[in-house]
Amino acid sequence: MRRNNSLSHLLLGAALTLGASQVIALQELDDSSLSDVQGAGLAFAMDDFSFRFAPTSYIELTGTQAQGAGWERGDARYYGLSITNGEQIAGMDWHGSGCGSGGAFGNDHLACPMGTDNGGGIGAFASIYDPYVLRAYKYEGYDYSGAYLSTPANMPTVMELIGPSDTDRWRWSFWGELEVDRLNNNPADGALNNSYNVGGADFLQSQTIIHGKPVTTDGRPARLRLMRTTGMDSALYPWADSNTFGINYESALSGDFRFSVRQKANSEDRLHWVPDFEDNEGMYFKNVDA
């Protein structure tokens, strides 16, 4: 996995507010002065940003040998995650630099998975006025049963990463393969996906391209929360341990999506082999707000 060098600016700490009103410039914080900090969080502003996996770098979901009739083992891999400039029409694909523009259904941005090599950065990935914010606070709100958490005794401490309420459009993409019926935990490396692949696994390669923002159309951002609760009432929650850990993710997406599986005629249909997909084929979903 490699990170593109166009991540040129990372401004850390822009949202720290200091309790001492006379402080008008940035200064080093020692242990004693940290006790006076009243923090709204850490802010991360990023411009001219892009992020790319190598086309062969992947995240894997590994299955187990199926038990019982009618079930087969399944394994999934997702390769080449790319986050690049969504406003560039021309771009490239994982197989090489041959992809251009000319997308179907009025969105040329969905023809090529990635932005061009010489300018794929996202201008306002997270502007200084609308950054990513990492903060910790006591959560005052409702639990899963509808009980209101309003006192320090039952308010969980939450660490939250909240995204911007607006960004420039991104182009997100990855290609994947689903492998079915791998035998004896042995990968069918390099196996052709055809009738001559006797005894090997069946598989399907696909690509996903999103041209949009990690924000809803009315400006609601994505949020990731990690929380720990302590001292839960055993009478109310007999199933709970005294300490619990929770994860809550609120996804926010808006834009146009494309999912496709058809490869070009000269693309070798092999497992773990970088595919070359047709530029226009697939299912298109426009004006999605999720």
Structure overview:
The chain has 290 residues and is mostly beta strands. It has a domain at 50-130 and 165-215 and 253-289. It is 1% helix and 35% strand. It has one helix and 17 strands. It has one helix at residues 31-34; strands at 9-12, 42-47, 51-52, 58-61, 74-85, 91-92, 114-115, 132-138, 141-142, 148-149, 157-162, 170-180, 202-213, 223-230, 243-250, 254-260, 283-289. The strands form four sheets. Strands 3, 4, 5, 12, 13, 16 and 17 form a seven-stranded antiparallel beta sheet that branches. It has a six-stranded antiparallel beta sheet with strand order 1-2-8-11-14-15, with no helix packed on it. Strand 9 and strand 10 form a beta hairpin. The longest helix has 4 residues, at 31-34. Residues 1-24 have low confidence and may be disordered.
Instruction: Tell me the series of helices and strands, N- to C-terminal.
Output: EHEEEEEEEEEEEEEEEE
The number of helical elements comes to 1
Total beta-strand segments:
17
Helix percentage: under 10%
Q: CA-to-CA gap between the ends?
A: 29 Å
Q: Any idea what the radius of gyration is?
A: 24 Å
Q: Main β-sheet, in a few words? A: 7 strands, antiparallel
Which of globular, elongated, flat, extended, rod-shaped describes the shape? globular
Q: Approximately what portion of the residues adopt beta-strand conformation?
A: 35-45%
